[in-house]
Amino acid sequence: MIRRFFSQIYLYLLWLIVAVMFWGWIFSLKTDTSAEKKVMVFADVDAMDEVGLSAKLEEEMPEGIRMVQAHPFSYVIFNENLLVNADVFIVPENEIEELLDTFAPMEREEGETYYEVDGVAYGKKIYDAATKEGPAKTFITYTTDKDDSQDYYLFYGIYSLHTGSLDEAAYEIANHLLCLP
Amino acid sequence: MMKRTNFYSLDGVNELKKRNHIWQILLGVIAVLSLIFCVSRVILATTLTVGEMEKQAIIAAVVSGWVIIALYINVLLPGRREVTHAMNMIESEPEVRRGRLTLTKDLVQIRGSILIRKVILENENEKVRLNLNESRKKYLKDLTGEVTVYTVGNYIVGFEEEA
């Protein structure tokens, strides 16, 4: 009986691979959609409850948007294109320069602090290193390093479809995120 | 008084067919239930639960698939082959031989057919190797002395012994 099992084991292994790949693909269809119908938020932070934050932001989805995906930067380790095409970024001050080409200029609002380059505002300060105050701390751990604490800024992607070209869903999602405790 | 034992009969074949049909239905039910469960995981998944739902769907698919594969290869397929073999034996006129039967240790899986055990039939004139359906081995285990053997081709389909 054991010998019979080992002679058939390749069938069981083959089924394992087929079943995992097939249902993994099916669920990927459920958990992803085209860029036109989703808003992607990427945060270069120490820790993040991606699932919780995505679910929270989906509670108030703008019209035409099917899903909100929130990910840490480590999510794009094998596919940097995802990062380039993201809609909303949360980035520490010491990493901004590296990614500046990815960010779109933003309109200023009174009372806010901005990251500026040549007088143009690109990002809005949302987390203050000194006071440790910032939005969505239930879902985002901005930094765990007491000695190297950075301010964090929110940016909009220059290639985003949701900052005016298709709709303004990125602004709505960002505003929702900024209101989270 | 002679006692005859036939290995194959129409009643036996019909019984086998019925059993195979039940196994077929059972495998179908397992497949359908598993599919319904997996599809329900996809439909019910939300952003918060999708990871857990995916895990449940994959586990259900893998386990049910393994059960179906195991039952199909080890129960249903041999059952179907047994029916085909039995029908071939029933439809042919058997030869009659006489001699002493000895079971050997040689087991052979006939490709696309049943598992057989080689049996030696010995009498004054000849010593031949015949094929015995392994599932019928129990009938010949305790045989001693000369018996009348019925064969189709080299397959033993029955025997007759002193009661």
Mind explaining what this structure looks like?
The complex is a heterodimer of chains A (181) and B (163). Chain A has 181 residues and is an alpha+beta fold. Chain A has 2 domains: 1-31; 32-178, D-Maltodextrin-Binding Protein, domain 2. Chain A has helices at residues 2-31, 50-57, 80-84, 96-99, 169-178, and strands spanning 38-43, 47-48, 67-72, 88-92, 103-104, 114-117, 120-127, 140-141, 152-157. Chain B has 2 domains: 2-90; 95-162, Beta Barrel (OB fold (Dihydrolipoamide Acetyltransferase, E2P)). Chain B is 49% helix and 31% strand. Chain B is built from 3 helices and 6 strands. Chain B has a 6-stranded antiparallel sheet. In chain B, strand 2 and strand 3 (115-122) form a beta hairpin. In chain B, helix 1 packs antiparallel against helix 2 (50-90). Chain B is elongated, with a radius of gyration of 23 Å. The A-B interface holds A 4, 8, 11-12, 15-16, 19-20, 22-24, 26-27, 30-31, 51-52, 54-55, 58, 67 and B 38, 42, 45-48, 50-51, 53-54, 57-58, 61-62, 65-66, 69-70, 73-74.
